[in-house]
């Protein structure tokens, strides 16, 4: 049992290291007819129908623990949403271990942290991507106090400005059980989705994450269950994705 747990930890560390160095795979853009790309489209539709009476303007993606697929899911769903002719912006709110700048091949010299600290304006941090209708805000330089600046009034100003320019705001936030950042953001966002890998995430860990989100009255739209393995030959993610409410 100890060897099995050690193996799982090593695998998660490898995935974390890979995504931080190279970003995540954008199957929804690079291979749109792939079965997994179609599953992202299905999940997008399910999320849209999860809030029929109220249009979602902002969605937060998080997980219970690190390396559970939240960045892969948020990036690919952002692509899927943008393909519907919706103007979408994906914000890297993981100010500790960011990946979006690597995924979309963007500079990270100026980003969310610069805006929240007052050293950059919105036009300086919003960046176009290769995907039509999809824009990103990278994390920016890692600050010494991520939770504090995410809780500042500037985040409210940012969301107000972005909602005037975009149809949907998508936030990639840190794991709930690791730091308070996702809880802080969830109080300001229309809906929260918990990404959890089948056969990897521990039940008590997921339950604790949900409890933490419930504590701040987050609007939990559901959980995306994924089973992701890195294919050594292609560096794409395989497995399947589904949403549970």
TrEMBL record:
Keywords: ATP-binding, Capsule biogenesis/degradation, Exopolysaccharide synthesis, Kinase, Nucleotide-binding, Transferase, Tyrosine-protein kinase. The keyword Cell inner membrane does not apply. InterPro entries: AAA_dom (IPR025669), Bact_polysacc_biosynth/exp (IPR050445), P-loop_NTPase (IPR027417), Wzc-like_C (IPR005702). Its EC number is 2.7.10.2. The keyword Secreted does not apply. One of its GO terms (biological process) is polysaccharide biosynthetic process. GO terms for molecular function: ATP binding; identical protein binding; non-membrane spanning protein tyrosine kinase activity. It holds the Pfam family AAA_31. Pathway: Capsule biogenesis; capsule polysaccharide biosynthesis. It is an enzyme of class 2 (transferase). GO terms for cellular component: plasma membrane. Gene3D superfamilies: P-loop containing nucleotide triphosphate hydrolases. Residues 69-188 form the AAA domain. Belongs to the CpsD/CapB family. This is Tyrosine-protein kinase CpsD. The lineage of its organism: Bacteria, Bacillati, Bacillota, Bacilli, Lactobacillales.
């Amino acid at each position: 049992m100890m060897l099995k747990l050690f193996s799982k930890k090593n695998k998660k560390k490898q995935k974390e290291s890979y995504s931080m160095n190279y970003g995540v795979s954008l199957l929804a853009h690079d291979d749109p007819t792939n079965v997994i790309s179609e599953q992202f489209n299905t999940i997008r539709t399910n999320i849209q129908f999860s809030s029929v009476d109220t249009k979602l303007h902002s969605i937060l993606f998080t997980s219970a623990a690190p390396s559970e697929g939240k960045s892969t899911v948020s990036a690919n769903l952002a692509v899927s949403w943008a393909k519907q002719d919706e103007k979408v912006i994906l914000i890297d709110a993981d100010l500790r271990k960011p990946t979006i700048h690597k995924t979309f091949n963007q500079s990270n010299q100026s980003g969310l942290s610069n805006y929240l600290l007052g050293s950059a304006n919105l036009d300086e941090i919003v960046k176009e991507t290769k995907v039509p209708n999809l824009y990103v805000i990278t994390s920016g330089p890692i600050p010494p106090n991520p939770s504090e600046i995410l809780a500042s009034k500037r985040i409210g100003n940012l969301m107000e400005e972005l909602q005037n320019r975009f149809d949907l705001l998508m936030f990639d936030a840190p794991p709930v059980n690791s730091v308070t950042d996702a809880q802080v953001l969830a109080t300001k966002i229309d809906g929260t989705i918990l990404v959890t890998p089948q056969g990897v995430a521990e039940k008590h860990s997921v339950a604790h994450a949900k409890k933490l989100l419930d504590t701040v009255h987050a609007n939990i739209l559901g959980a995306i269950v994924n089973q992701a393995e890195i294919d050594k030959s292609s560096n794409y993610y395989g497995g399947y994705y589904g949403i549970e409410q």
